[in-house]
Amino acid sequence: MTAMSVCEVCVSDLLYCDRHDAYLCPLCDRWQESACTDPECTYCLGRPDRPSLCEHPDRHHKTHD
Q1: How many domains does the structure of the chain reveal?
Q2: Which of 5, 14, 44, 53 meets the CB 3.0–4.6 Å disulfide criterion with 48?
Q3: Which range marks the domain in which residue 19 is found?
Q4: What is the pLDDT of residues 4-35, one digit of tens each?
Q5: Residue 39 pLDDT more than 50?
Q6: Backbone conformation region of residue 20, classed left if phi is above 0, alpha if psi is from -120 to 50, else beta
């Protein structure tokens, strides 16, 4: 996965979700990548449609300072 730093839509800092191994924009409330299609992927399994619906928002963090 390539490190990202800002949202392409609103240019705000992205966060990284450890649980779902994905970048997200907290302002746009959208994941930056689509979930994979592997039915056994432990990262994408159960990933909600929007980051705000994630069960573990404490695992969302900045990727840079």
Answers
A1: 1
A2: 53
A3: 15-62
A4: 689 999 999 999 998 899 999 999 999 999 99
A5: yes
A6: alpha
Q: What is the pTM of this model?
A: 0.79
List the beta bridge partners of residue 52: none
Residue 24 lies in a domain: yes
Structure tokens at 17: 């979700």
Q: First-to-last CA distance in the chain?
A: 19
Residue 7 placed within a domain = no
Dist CA 42 CA 11 (whole Å): 29
Residue 59's SS3 state is: helix
Question: Concatenated DSSP letters for 47-58?
Answer: --SSGGG-S-GG
